[in-house]
Design a protein that fits this description.
By secondary structure, the protein is of the alpha+beta class. It has three domains: 103 residues, no CATH class; 154 residues, no CATH class; 166 residues, no CATH class. Helix content is 48%, strand content 12%. The chain contains 17 helices and eleven strands. A hairpin with a 4-residue loop joins strand 3 and strand 4. It is globular and about 90 Å long.
Amino acid sequence: MDIEDRTKDEASKSFVSYVEVVKKTISKVSSIEKRHLLDVFKELEESIEFKKLGEIFSHAYGGRRPDSANSRLQNYFRRSGFYLDITKGKLVDIDAEFEGLWAAFNERHVKKTTIIPINFVQFPEKVIDFGAFKIQALSKDELDNLLEQEVCGVFYPYAMINTKELGLFWHIVEERIEHRNKEDLSVIELGFSWKDTFKVKRKFPGRTLQLLALFDWGDASSRCAPDKQDTDYWFIPLNLPFEHTTSNNLIDWPKASPDLSRLATRPYYTPDGEETDKECPDFRILLSDSQVNELKKVIGAAHGFLKDIDLKDCKWEFLEIAMGSLAKAFLSDDIEQLLWNVVALEALIGDKKETTQTILRRTSLIYGGGDKRKIDEICKEIKKIYEFRSSLVHGSVKLDKDRKKDFFCRYHLRLARDYARKTVLWFIDYLSHMHRELQRGSVPLNKYPKRKDLLLILDYQIKNFEHEGAMVKMPDDFPRTAVG
């Protein structure tokens, strides 16, 4: 028997001893009230048997103190349901429980689930599955189970959530699996390295929110009449009050409850029109079946392309920057939206010199279709975006002086959002086609055309060309491929 096996055997025996103490203590305490359970188990976790188990695990996993593993052991006994099962008189498989505990300290895969409630929007389907994530209406029971509310009610009051209220909303639900190494109690995990303290990192929303930002939430592509632009109230974007993540890493602490006051609710009225003290979701948008189908189409096309390619290998990271900037704009407050949307545009079709003129020319190529009146309108709108951006950057617009200026800038946000979103979608379609053509010609990713070459193909509207021995045929209507 090697050292690890001997340690595991010693830990198993100590585990059995502690289980016996727990069983005896619970059997002697009749009708324990829920509010007193935590006190009972806190006393048990001060017992000689628990401390002995802690010493064995601390030594086995490099702890610098005999009690280094104690908090992890506490979490396991509480979150696994072990304590509650004994309290309820359920039969406990001691061997299986110990194996679960031992596995929780060793190399493993941890499942994390993130839920993000969506304000203002009601969907026609209970579950919309996008593969990488779902939009789902979760019931109170489903949320109670996911968020371990029975356990939290006894052991982690700070993590208790009003799941009845939370269950009134649709949620973005994302599951991911993370690899965790064997526990090393000799290391204090700070969440960053010393070198990180000297770096300023660019942080974009995750891929799920980047994909959702590609859909035309609130119909940003619509245009109001010129005489209405000063009072354009803009569109309602996706409003995400918070995100909350739970995991099945049972030796870890559950996260604190989120701030539910950020959920958009309104008073509930009776059929007779009387206001009650109850609250209900403040739904302002009901997506139709056709809109949900368009949402699935947009996200499906983008996700299908992105999971099939490594943008870093083919030096197409500019698309990552554009998608990240678009999502950042989508989730930012008013003025930041315009600035980040412009960043998204410039990441795709801008140049270091003569950026405005370059953007005008390339957006005209993509959306103009040779129609002079259409091209003139595009140029007019792009100029508005850049003129207002320049005013913001140089401080010549005082937005807080009167409300008219605030309303006026909202129309510019609409334009910036619409052009940035559609151009990102256009590039995804363009790169997806290019990828299929090059893949068919067995061209390795590191030999793909770079951004400057891709823009050259757009500028000169090249339909057919040879690259690294592969013939590439562009669509007949290139550069006017479809956008959402």
